[in-house]
Amino acid sequence: MKGSDIKKIAVIGAGAMGNGIAQVGILAGYTVAMRDIEQRFVDKGVDTIKASLAKFVNKGKITQEQSEMALSRLIPIVDLEAAVKDADLIIEAAPEDLDLKKKIFAELDSLVPEEAILASNTSTMSITKIASAAKRQERVIGMHFFNPSVLMKLVEVIYGNNSSDEAVQATFEVAQKMGKIPVIVKKDSPGFIYNRVNAPTGLLLQKILEKGSPSFEQFDAVFKPFMPMAPFELLDYVGLDIVMHTQKYFSETLSKDYTPVKALVDLVNSGVLGMKTGKGLYDWSAGRPQIDTSNPTTEYDPVDMVALQVNEATKLLEEGVVEGPADIDLAMANGGGGVGPFALAKGIGYDNLVKKCNALADKFGLEVFRPTKTMQEGNIQV
Fold first, then answer.
1. Range(s) for CATH 1.10.1040.10 in the chain?
2. pLDDT confidence band for 211 (50 / 70 / 90)
């Protein structure tokens, strides 16, 4: 199957990611069945899509006619068999629970057409493990959109151990037709590209939170003047529970160094989850928090964060997760905006970055921060 053969997409899950992916699909001209386990979840997803399309019309991004045409291609549905029986591409957007995803894929495998591609929108989990529940594992791949999927450009297209080149290439072409910037992840690896490169910076933030000095606001004060969202503010935005679960997953798959610290676990256990609960590290009850930038820490600077990202990116090169450094820079620039780590490294200098990594590894006693051989050699061409 080629990308051009794909006419109908089924999205499994009508939550934030599911309805966003469905909207991207209908705007790109695909017929999209959006399925969830209860009608109320489906209805909520449809309402979200309608509200989002109305915003697009108001901003002049699309016409009212284009909005209506897109909605005419949406099939809201609860019946799983009816949703997928004639779909060419099925995108699972269920919660990040491996057992749940495997159960869904086992069921899908028995319902979908023989040539259909089964894709998971998981942000970190093993595509190979998810595919193990299906008989035709060569048709199972990862298709990771970023939140909000209507706006974010990056889509990671991920090989499982048994995925076929044909399934990956067809999905790559669909992502392009959706107006996205797809990047192929050649090897199934925890966190793929974007979340993996950011894993050690998340760990650093955990450790600073645990230490309590500098305060999270003093740390953010360094970044806020030139970033739309400062590091700790971003943790709140993502959700402290999501951050904790992701770091826990990395502690099980990459290094025990990532084990969530007590300070983070206590916040999550007490229901303080960030923006979605109105309170996290910051108070979100009145909207975006006002961050005091008058007292920035002098203990850390942005190069600390860049050093950890570049170092982790070199691990992806050493492990053969991507074709080359340009793919990592492309993914990082389009997953979060800004400039890729290797482009930044060029300007900062690898000697400086190696020193930063060694200093952080010594300071926190974390070998995961120690510079790689590739990082120390500094011969990376983008």
1. 195-277, 302-377
2. very high
The question of whether 144 is a catalytic residue gets the answer: yes
b/e for 12-25, b at 16 or more Cβ within 10 A?
A: bbbeebbbbbbbbb
- What is the arrangement of strands in the sheet containing 89-92, beginning at the earlier edge strand? 74-77, 31-35, 8-12, 89-92, 117-120, 140-145, 154-159, 181-185
Architecture of domain 302-377: Orthogonal Bundle (1.10)
Question: pLDDT, tens digit, for every residue of 318-366?
Answer: 999 999 999 999 999 999 878 899 999 999 999 999 999 999 999 999 9
Residue with tokens 């060029």: 346
Taking domain 195-277, whether its CATH number is 3.30.43.10 is answered by no
In angstroms, the Cα distances linking 76 to 37, 39, 305 are: 11, 9, 43
With 90 as the cut, is the pLDDT of residue 147 above it?
no
Which class in CATH covers the domain with range 3-185? alpha beta
Distance CA 371, CA 48 (A): 45
pLDDT of residue 206: 96
**Residues 73, 101, 144, 153: which is the catalytic one?**
144
pLDDT tens readout for residues 100-142: 999 999 999 999 999 999 999 999 899 999 999 999 999 999 9
81/102 Cα distance (integer angstroms): 17
With H, G, I as helix, E, B as strand and everything else as coil, classify residue 50. helix
